[in-house]
Design a protein that fits this description.
33% of the residues are buried. The two termini are 16 Å apart. The protein is globular and about 60 Å long. It is an alpha/beta fold and 258 residues long. The strands form two sheets. Strands 6-9-8-7-10-11 form a six-stranded mixed sheet, sandwiched between helices. A five-stranded mixed sheet has the order 3-2-1-4-5, with helices on both faces. The chain has two domains: 86 residues, ATPase, nucleotide binding domain (Nucleotidyltransferase, domain 5); 150 residues, ATPase, nucleotide binding domain (Nucleotidyltransferase, domain 5). A hairpin with a 2-residue loop joins β7 and β8. The protein is built from seven helices and eleven strands.
């Protein structure tokens, strides 16, 4: 069984994959100081609750955008599973090309998403990941990562607005109840600015990226807020919550199981 670990800036996802099927998904807040033992205590408890068997984990793949977490995750894998994990970088065999001056600058999460998207969808692709940052990644139909866009994540924007403004409250990420752009109260105005502003970001960036690609590109969205935005824009073609995990499994199979 493969344990796939995706370390984001805010949360870390642990997923168990067996026979190509994702069996379990668990999340924990990302904390660079969390020790190997702490990871294992948390993971063991969840596996016990769900009837899992630690001995069944024979392989581990890690993608992290927080380098400081890597040492303790590696220690956990060696100490408790007896394996050296595969760590995703631009230097391993991804199965796609990277057409950038410095490929090592690309976050592991973006590379993993690109691999999974190219395997699942034909033609030019735009992958939108709604995480701590909102990223747009471009993959050509011939399987080459061309670059992308990084914008502040919507929750980060909400937090910044709340912290930097004396009288503005903290709000949830949702469209105003009226559905209109013009808010009739402070909260509605904030909801409109945050939510419809992000819809405008999505639609504007997709249109610009498609224009630069010279034709239509399929848009795949992932991340926790992707279903919400998918309901309010026609710019998203597919939502795949497991895109990153699928990419990790594919990269592991290509580099270790082949």
């Amino acid at each position: 069984m493969l344990l796939a670990i995706d370390v984001g800036n805010t949360n870390t996802l642990f997923a168990l994959i067996e026979g190509g099927e994702i069996r379990e998904r668990w999340r924990i807040s990302t904390e660079a100081r969390r020790t190997a033992d702490e990871y294992m205590v948390w993971l063991s408890q969840l596996m016990d609750i769900n009837g899992g068997d630690r001995a069944a984990i024979t392989d581990v793949a890690i993608a992290t955008v927080v380098p400081a977490t890597l040492f303790n995750l590696r220690q956990m894998c060696k100490r408790y599973f007896g394996v050296e994990p595969l760590v995703v970088t631009a230097q391993i065999d991804l199965g796609i090309g990277i057409d950038l001056p410095n490929p090592s600058e690309v976050g592991a999460d973006r590379l993993v998403n690109a691999v999974a998207a190219h395997a699942a969808y034909p033609g030019d692709l735009i992958v939108i990941d709604f995480g701590t940052a909102t990223t747009f990644d471009i993959i050509s139909g011939d399987g080459v990562y061309r670059g992308g866009v990084i914008a502040p994540g919507i929750n980060l924007s909400v937090e910044a607005l709340f912290l930097a403004s004396a009288k503005l409250p903290k709000i949830a990420v949702e469209p105003p109840p009226s559905g209109r752009a013009i808010g009739r109260s402070t909260i509605e105005a904030m909801q409109s600015g945050i939510f419809w502003g992000y819809v405008g970001l999505i639609e504007g960036m997709v249109a610009r990226c498609r224009a630069e690609l010279g034709g239509r590109a399929t848009v795949i969205a992932t991340g926790g807020l992707s279903p919400l935005f998918d309901r309010h824009t026609d710019s998203i073609d597919h939502v795949d919550a497991d895109l990153t995990v699928k990419g990790l499994a594919a990269i592991y199979a290509r580099n270790v199981q082949a």
